[in-house]
Amino acid sequence: MKRKLKLSVGHPLSILSLAYFAAGSTALADPIDLSPDGLADPVSTITFDELEIADTAEVSTEFADLGVTLLPNLYYRTGDHPDWQNVAGPNLRTGDPEVNPFSIKFGSVLTSAAVTLIAQPPTPATITAILNGEDVESFETTISIDNPDNYFGFTDINFDEIEVDYSDRGTRLRVDNVQLGEEAEGFGDRFRITGVARAPDGVVDLTWESEAGTLYDIEMSVDQTTGSWQPIMLGVLGEPDPATTTSISVQGQVDAPMQYFRVRRAGTPPLLETSFEDGMADWTVSGDGTPWEFGTPSSGPGAANTGTGVAATGLAGDYADGTMVQLRTPVIDPGETQRVNLDFFYYLEATANEGGQISLLESDGRLIVNLEKLYLGGEGNTAEWTEENIRLPKLEPARPFIVQFAFLSVEDGNPDNGTGWLIDDVRVSK
What we know:
By secondary structure, the protein is mainly beta. It has three domains: 6-19 and 190-267, Immunoglobulin-like; 31-180, Sandwich (Jelly Rolls), CATH 2.60.120; 273-429, Jelly Rolls. Helix content is 0%, strand content 48%. The protein has strands at 6-7, 13-18, 31-35, 44-46, 58-59, 68-71, 74-77, 91-93, 102-120, 123-131, 134-143, 151-166, 172-180, 193-198, 203-209, 215-221, 230-237, 245-251, 259-267, 272-274, 284-288, 292-295, 310-313, 324-328, 341-349, 355-362, 367-376, 386-391, 401-408, 420-429. Strands 3, 4, 5, 6, 7, 8, 9, 10, 11, 12 and 13 form an eleven-stranded antiparallel sheet that branches. Strands 20, 22, 23, 25, 28 and 30 form a six-stranded antiparallel sheet that branches. It starts with 5 loop residues before the first strand and ends with a strand.
């Protein structure tokens, strides 16, 4: 959804400040299930031809300026399929690796939204409206390429995300025509930019109204066009109480005749975040064989993804046969949030059918669930650091939990096992 800019009068800099605040949702009126048209009068529609993106490229935040982020990631397809109802030109696709469930995350809290979904072969699915990580309403349906009535969504509730969970793991879904309705009242409050100044060397000083403990992102553009906004400072923490404003300095372009800056509310700090620069900290390890170690790797990638620290099944050389070791986060308290995201980078070099598994544990270490995806060697080995984004299973009720990274190998007598599993830049967030 396009947004209005708050201009700084008399200065060649324009500033945008964005924010919304939590409020209660209303009861569900009618879900949009197997509709031929979706919303009767959408405020905007994203058709995915607004940007030029390479075929099969992963798509996540590319359409954020239009009001949509894809979680964890989908894949861009440029081919046109005029025989598919309501799917024309570029669209998104699940699969390889499979993305299920996936979410369409909105930049604002909306009262209505809809999206075209098709599947081949047909698959049962659950469509869920979510607000601030909590389920608001959901319905069960069937998504099919053969049904011309293929819009799904919600009206007359407050939500900032639509999750699609489809049951047939062999099915590929297509996503197109994301329709955005009106913003919900009480969520669109703006915070003000209170100061802006640029020095001759291009340094720009920004001051804005802020809240303690809230994160803000600073972005810059030279022309405000879609896709032109570039992050220049992310995760700026609002000044603690009793301060009511936050100020930062960023480097602008000295020779640019016009520059545009904006400040976005980025949300609350992550529940857990580490790049292992300080070693083990409150993480714990257990098991037999080559142990989890913390530091700079000399084998495998030969370096951390960022900084110098990683967690690895041995920082040098190959892992031993029969290694069965566990790496556990500290206890993570999500408060009342039932759904959280796990993001991390990994490097894998193992023999076929040996590798890693991620599990959720109770705060006392008892197993909650083993995640479906396995990180197995052989064809699953990586040539470089690889990013992984996971929407963790919903916890009912919401409660503290532990994330466990386990590495498992067998006694096969082969000494050439590889460097094992390396983990870096772990983040758990709402």
